[in-house]
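Methods: example folding runs. The two proteins below were folded one after another, and each record is reproduced exactly as written to the output file, sequence line first and C-alpha coordinate line second.
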Amino acid sequence: MPEGKKRAKELFSSGFNCAEAVSISVCGVTGVGGSVVPVAATGFGGGGGGAGGTCGALSGAFLAVSLKYGRTSSDQDRRNTYRICQPIFDGFVAEMGAASCRELTGLDLRTREGGQRLRESGIHERVCAKAVEVSERLALERIRIQESGGG
Protein backbone atom coordinates (compact mmCIF):
# COMPACT_ATOMS: atom_id res chain seq x y z
CA MET A 1 0.00 0.00 0.00
CA PRO A 2 1.41 3.44 -0.88
CA GLU A 3 2.37 5.89 1.83
CA GLY A 4 -0.04 8.68 2.68
CA LYS A 5 1.25 12.11 1.78
CA LYS A 6 -0.74 14.30 4.16
CA ARG A 7 -3.27 14.73 1.39
CA ALA A 8 -6.06 15.18 3.95
CA LYS A 9 -4.69 18.55 5.08
CA GLU A 10 -4.53 19.72 1.46
CA LEU A 11 -8.11 18.61 0.89
CA PHE A 12 -9.19 20.32 4.11
CA SER A 13 -7.44 23.54 3.10
CA SER A 14 -9.17 23.41 -0.28
CA GLY A 15 -12.63 23.49 1.31
CA PHE A 16 -13.59 19.91 2.10
CA ASN A 17 -14.79 19.50 5.67
CA CYS A 18 -12.74 17.51 8.19
CA ALA A 19 -14.61 14.22 7.69
CA GLU A 20 -14.58 14.50 3.89
CA ALA A 21 -10.86 15.31 3.78
CA VAL A 22 -9.77 12.38 5.95
CA SER A 23 -12.06 9.83 4.34
CA ILE A 24 -11.16 10.90 0.78
CA SER A 25 -7.44 10.74 1.55
CA VAL A 26 -7.47 7.40 3.39
CA CYS A 27 -9.83 5.81 0.88
CA GLY A 28 -7.63 7.08 -1.94
CA VAL A 29 -4.66 5.28 -0.42
CA THR A 30 -6.59 2.06 0.16
CA GLY A 31 -8.43 2.14 -3.15
CA VAL A 32 -11.95 1.82 -1.73
CA GLY A 33 -15.02 3.98 -1.79
CA GLY A 34 -14.78 5.95 -4.99
CA SER A 35 -16.99 8.98 -5.58
CA VAL A 36 -19.42 8.05 -2.79
CA VAL A 37 -16.84 8.89 -0.11
CA PRO A 38 -17.24 12.66 0.20
CA VAL A 39 -21.00 12.28 -0.13
CA ALA A 40 -21.10 9.74 2.70
CA ALA A 41 -18.77 11.84 4.89
CA THR A 42 -20.33 15.30 4.56
CA GLY A 43 -22.74 15.01 7.48
CA PHE A 44 -19.99 13.99 9.91
CA GLY A 45 -18.26 17.40 9.72
CA GLY A 46 -18.26 19.60 12.79
CA GLY A 47 -18.99 16.70 15.07
CA GLY A 48 -22.05 15.54 13.17
CA GLY A 49 -23.67 18.31 11.17
CA GLY A 50 -21.96 20.93 13.30
CA ALA A 51 -23.50 19.52 16.50
CA GLY A 52 -20.14 19.24 18.28
CA GLY A 53 -20.11 15.46 18.85
CA THR A 54 -17.30 13.15 17.78
CA CYS A 55 -14.75 15.09 15.73
CA GLY A 56 -15.52 14.80 12.03
CA ALA A 57 -11.90 14.03 11.19
CA LEU A 58 -12.04 11.04 13.52
CA SER A 59 -15.39 9.98 12.05
CA GLY A 60 -13.88 10.27 8.56
CA ALA A 61 -11.13 7.87 9.63
CA PHE A 62 -13.72 5.41 10.93
CA LEU A 63 -15.68 5.71 7.69
CA ALA A 64 -12.60 4.93 5.61
CA VAL A 65 -11.69 1.94 7.79
CA SER A 66 -15.27 0.67 7.59
CA LEU A 67 -15.31 0.95 3.81
CA LYS A 68 -12.14 -1.13 3.72
CA TYR A 69 -12.91 -3.71 6.44
CA GLY A 70 -16.58 -3.34 7.36
CA ARG A 71 -19.15 -6.05 7.07
CA THR A 72 -21.77 -6.42 4.37
CA SER A 73 -24.30 -8.49 6.33
CA SER A 74 -25.44 -8.63 9.93
CA ASP A 75 -24.20 -12.17 10.44
CA GLN A 76 -20.59 -11.15 9.78
CA ASP A 77 -18.27 -10.35 12.68
CA ARG A 78 -17.65 -6.65 13.30
CA ARG A 79 -14.89 -7.15 15.88
CA ASN A 80 -12.01 -6.86 13.38
CA THR A 81 -13.18 -3.42 12.28
CA TYR A 82 -13.61 -2.40 15.91
CA ARG A 83 -10.07 -3.64 16.68
CA ILE A 84 -8.77 -1.32 13.97
CA CYS A 85 -10.88 1.67 15.03
CA GLN A 86 -10.30 1.54 18.79
CA PRO A 87 -6.57 2.37 18.62
CA ILE A 88 -7.36 5.19 16.20
CA PHE A 89 -9.77 6.63 18.76
CA ASP A 90 -7.36 6.14 21.66
CA GLY A 91 -4.43 7.63 19.73
CA PHE A 92 -6.53 10.60 18.66
CA VAL A 93 -7.59 11.36 22.24
CA ALA A 94 -4.00 10.94 23.45
CA GLU A 95 -2.71 13.45 20.90
CA MET A 96 -5.61 15.87 20.71
CA GLY A 97 -6.85 15.73 24.31
CA ALA A 98 -10.48 14.96 23.43
CA ALA A 99 -12.64 13.32 20.77
CA SER A 100 -15.50 15.80 20.75
CA CYS A 101 -15.54 18.70 18.32
CA ARG A 102 -17.00 21.01 20.93
CA GLU A 103 -14.26 20.14 23.44
CA LEU A 104 -11.54 20.50 20.82
CA THR A 105 -12.74 23.84 19.47
CA GLY A 106 -14.49 25.27 22.52
CA LEU A 107 -17.25 26.45 20.17
CA ASP A 108 -20.89 25.72 19.44
CA LEU A 109 -20.86 25.32 15.68
CA ARG A 110 -24.66 25.19 15.54
CA THR A 111 -24.67 28.94 15.95
CA ARG A 112 -23.65 31.46 13.36
CA GLU A 113 -21.32 33.03 15.93
CA GLY A 114 -19.61 29.70 16.59
CA GLY A 115 -18.96 29.11 12.89
CA GLN A 116 -17.70 32.64 12.47
CA ARG A 117 -15.36 32.36 15.48
CA LEU A 118 -14.05 29.03 14.16
CA ARG A 119 -12.55 30.75 11.13
CA GLU A 120 -11.75 34.17 12.59
CA SER A 121 -9.94 32.85 15.67
CA GLY A 122 -7.64 30.51 13.74
CA ILE A 123 -9.04 27.42 15.48
CA HIS A 124 -9.95 26.00 12.08
CA GLU A 125 -6.32 26.16 10.97
CA ARG A 126 -4.74 25.19 14.31
CA VAL A 127 -7.04 22.63 15.88
CA CYS A 128 -9.12 21.27 13.02
CA ALA A 129 -6.23 20.99 10.56
CA LYS A 130 -4.22 19.14 13.22
CA ALA A 131 -7.16 16.79 13.88
CA VAL A 132 -7.31 16.06 10.15
CA GLU A 133 -3.59 15.23 10.05
CA VAL A 134 -3.72 13.09 13.19
CA SER A 135 -6.78 11.15 12.01
CA GLU A 136 -5.30 10.49 8.58
CA ARG A 137 -2.00 9.30 10.05
CA LEU A 138 -3.57 7.06 12.67
CA ALA A 139 -5.97 5.46 10.18
CA LEU A 140 -3.20 4.76 7.68
CA GLU A 141 -0.97 3.34 10.42
CA ARG A 142 -3.70 0.95 11.59
CA ILE A 143 -4.50 -0.07 8.01
CA ARG A 144 -0.82 -0.77 7.34
CA ILE A 145 -0.62 -2.89 10.49
CA GLN A 146 -3.74 -4.79 9.41
CA GLU A 147 -2.36 -5.31 5.89
CA SER A 148 0.94 -6.61 7.24
CA GLY A 149 -0.88 -9.23 9.27
CA GLY A 150 -0.28 -7.53 12.59
CA GLY A 151 -4.02 -6.80 13.08
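Second run, written to the same file directly after the first:
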Amino acid sequence: MSTFVPLISSGTAGPLGVLHLPRFWQKASLEARGKLDSRYPGCGKGYDQMTLDALGLNKDATLKFIKDSRPTYPQLEAWIKKQPGVKLDKATIEKHNAGVRGYNHDDATRQGILKNNGLPDDGSVKDAVRLNDLDSWQEFHADVLK
Protein backbone atom coordinates (compact mmCIF):
# COMPACT_ATOMS: atom_id res chain seq x y z
CA MET A 1 0.00 0.00 0.00
CA SER A 2 1.23 3.48 -0.86
CA THR A 3 1.60 6.16 1.75
CA PHE A 4 1.58 9.87 1.08
CA VAL A 5 3.51 12.91 2.22
CA PRO A 6 0.93 15.64 2.95
CA LEU A 7 1.42 18.48 0.49
CA ILE A 8 -1.27 20.94 1.56
CA SER A 9 0.52 23.81 3.26
CA SER A 10 -0.27 24.99 6.77
CA GLY A 11 -0.51 28.39 5.11
CA THR A 12 -3.61 27.28 3.18
CA ALA A 13 -7.14 28.07 4.35
CA GLY A 14 -10.48 26.82 3.08
CA PRO A 15 -13.76 28.79 2.85
CA LEU A 16 -13.89 29.32 6.64
CA GLY A 17 -10.55 31.12 6.39
CA VAL A 18 -8.78 28.94 9.00
CA LEU A 19 -5.11 28.39 8.20
CA HIS A 20 -3.83 24.81 8.54
CA LEU A 21 -7.31 23.27 8.69
CA PRO A 22 -7.04 21.82 5.15
CA ARG A 23 -3.66 20.25 5.98
CA PHE A 24 -5.07 18.81 9.22
CA TRP A 25 -7.98 17.30 7.24
CA GLN A 26 -5.58 15.76 4.72
CA LYS A 27 -3.28 14.28 7.37
CA ALA A 28 -6.10 12.96 9.58
CA SER A 29 -7.89 11.51 6.55
CA LEU A 30 -4.76 9.77 5.30
CA GLU A 31 -3.96 8.39 8.75
CA ALA A 32 -7.51 7.07 9.15
CA ARG A 33 -6.96 5.01 5.99
CA GLY A 34 -3.41 3.88 6.85
CA LYS A 35 -2.04 6.01 4.01
CA LEU A 36 -0.16 8.75 5.86
CA ASP A 37 3.62 8.68 5.53
CA SER A 38 5.04 7.49 8.85
CA ARG A 39 7.14 10.65 9.25
CA TYR A 40 3.95 12.65 9.88
CA PRO A 41 1.42 12.51 12.71
CA GLY A 42 -2.25 12.40 11.76
CA CYS A 43 -2.90 14.82 14.60
CA GLY A 44 0.21 16.23 16.21
CA LYS A 45 0.77 18.57 19.14
CA GLY A 46 1.77 21.57 17.01
CA TYR A 47 -0.40 23.22 14.38
CA ASP A 48 -2.98 20.40 14.52
CA GLN A 49 -3.71 20.85 18.22
CA MET A 50 -3.40 24.62 17.91
CA THR A 51 -6.13 24.60 15.25
CA LEU A 52 -8.46 22.30 17.20
CA ASP A 53 -8.00 24.36 20.37
CA ALA A 54 -8.54 27.68 18.60
CA LEU A 55 -11.83 26.50 17.11
CA GLY A 56 -12.97 24.79 20.31
CA LEU A 57 -13.14 21.36 18.67
CA ASN A 58 -12.87 18.09 20.56
CA LYS A 59 -9.91 16.16 19.16
CA ASP A 60 -11.40 12.69 19.59
CA ALA A 61 -14.78 13.64 18.13
CA THR A 62 -13.17 15.38 15.16
CA LEU A 63 -10.87 12.45 14.38
CA LYS A 64 -13.78 10.01 14.76
CA PHE A 65 -15.87 12.04 12.32
CA ILE A 66 -13.02 12.06 9.79
CA LYS A 67 -12.41 8.32 10.20
CA ASP A 68 -16.05 7.24 10.11
CA SER A 69 -17.47 9.69 7.57
CA ARG A 70 -14.55 10.14 5.14
CA PRO A 71 -15.61 13.74 4.51
CA THR A 72 -14.52 15.94 1.67
CA TYR A 73 -12.94 19.14 2.90
CA PRO A 74 -16.19 21.16 2.51
CA GLN A 75 -18.05 18.41 4.40
CA LEU A 76 -15.58 18.75 7.27
CA GLU A 77 -16.15 22.50 7.41
CA ALA A 78 -19.93 21.97 7.38
CA TRP A 79 -19.60 19.50 10.28
CA ILE A 80 -17.40 21.95 12.20
CA LYS A 81 -20.04 24.69 11.86
CA LYS A 82 -22.56 22.42 13.63
CA GLN A 83 -20.39 21.59 16.64
CA PRO A 84 -21.50 22.96 20.00
CA GLY A 85 -19.23 25.68 21.29
CA VAL A 86 -17.30 26.04 18.06
CA LYS A 87 -15.55 29.40 17.70
CA LEU A 88 -15.62 30.71 14.14
CA ASP A 89 -15.84 34.44 14.72
CA LYS A 90 -13.51 36.70 12.77
CA ALA A 91 -11.38 37.64 15.79
CA THR A 92 -10.78 33.99 16.77
CA ILE A 93 -9.82 33.02 13.24
CA GLU A 94 -7.55 36.04 12.81
CA LYS A 95 -5.81 35.32 16.12
CA HIS A 96 -5.30 31.67 15.16
CA ASN A 97 -4.02 32.57 11.70
CA ALA A 98 -1.58 35.08 13.18
CA GLY A 99 -0.31 32.32 15.47
CA VAL A 100 0.20 29.95 12.55
CA ARG A 101 1.98 32.60 10.47
CA GLY A 102 4.07 33.79 13.41
CA TYR A 103 5.35 30.44 14.66
CA ASN A 104 9.07 29.82 14.16
CA HIS A 105 10.88 26.53 14.60
CA ASP A 106 13.81 26.24 16.97
CA ASP A 107 17.27 26.83 15.49
CA ALA A 108 18.18 23.15 15.13
CA THR A 109 14.96 22.32 13.26
CA ARG A 110 15.35 25.32 10.96
CA GLN A 111 18.99 24.53 10.26
CA GLY A 112 18.24 20.86 9.55
CA ILE A 113 15.44 21.60 7.09
CA LEU A 114 17.47 24.22 5.26
CA LYS A 115 20.52 21.92 5.10
CA ASN A 116 18.40 19.04 3.74
CA ASN A 117 17.19 21.39 1.00
CA GLY A 118 20.66 22.73 0.18
CA LEU A 119 19.73 26.22 1.32
CA PRO A 120 21.80 28.62 3.41
CA ASP A 121 20.62 29.63 6.86
CA ASP A 122 20.83 33.31 5.95
CA GLY A 123 17.75 34.47 7.86
CA SER A 124 15.49 34.67 4.82
CA VAL A 125 13.34 31.68 5.87
CA LYS A 126 12.45 31.48 9.55
CA ASP A 127 8.73 30.76 9.76
CA ALA A 128 7.53 27.21 10.36
CA VAL A 129 4.96 27.31 7.53
CA ARG A 130 7.60 27.76 4.82
CA LEU A 131 10.08 25.47 6.53
CA ASN A 132 7.45 22.73 6.81
CA ASP A 133 6.58 23.22 3.14
CA LEU A 134 10.24 22.86 2.18
CA ASP A 135 10.53 19.75 4.33
CA SER A 136 7.45 18.09 2.81
CA TRP A 137 8.43 19.01 -0.75
CA GLN A 138 11.93 17.59 -0.23
CA GLU A 139 10.54 14.34 1.21
CA PHE A 140 8.01 14.06 -1.63
CA HIS A 141 10.76 14.61 -4.17
CA ALA A 142 13.02 12.00 -2.56
CA ASP A 143 10.20 9.43 -2.33
CA VAL A 144 8.37 10.00 -5.61
CA LEU A 145 10.30 12.07 -8.09
CA LYS A 146 13.94 11.07 -7.61
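Comment on the second run: Residues 104-146 form one domain.
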